[in-house]
Amino acid sequence: MYWPHTSDTSNEAVSNANGRDRFDAIMRCLHFHDINESDKFAKLQPLISHLQKIFMEHFVPAPNISHDETMVEYFGKYSCKQSIRNKSIRFGYKIWCQNSSSGYLIAFDPYRRKIHIWKCRIRIDLCEVFINSTSFTGLL
């Protein structure tokens, strides 16, 4: 697993900042174990919140913002794992993403198998912050 070099998926800022050996070392040592049954991502929430804050600090408004879901491939056993037919990644974690037209990830939230109001909340939050400088696309 390493950063792709194709023009549509590569991000030189990421691949230049993080070499293959460092990435492999992080992946070998990174482990999260959650015993909270009510929220499967409780241990990850501080990391998610920190990343969201950093992403918003470095975000440069783009002409369009889109909201979509993505799958992170995972074949192990975990109750939040999703299976979606007719997708290139059929098994894994579903993550709601807010992206700029340049491909920059502005915000994300993992699907937690419950009534998920994140779609509405994140759209409203982004509209309040960027309504004067950005036109929105998607399902607003």
UniProtKB/TrEMBL annotation:
It comes from the Eukaryota. GO terms for molecular function: sequence-specific DNA binding. InterPro entries: PGBD, PiggyBac_TE-derived. Residues 1-114 form the PiggyBac transposable element-derived protein domain. This is PiggyBac transposable element-derived protein domain-containing protein.
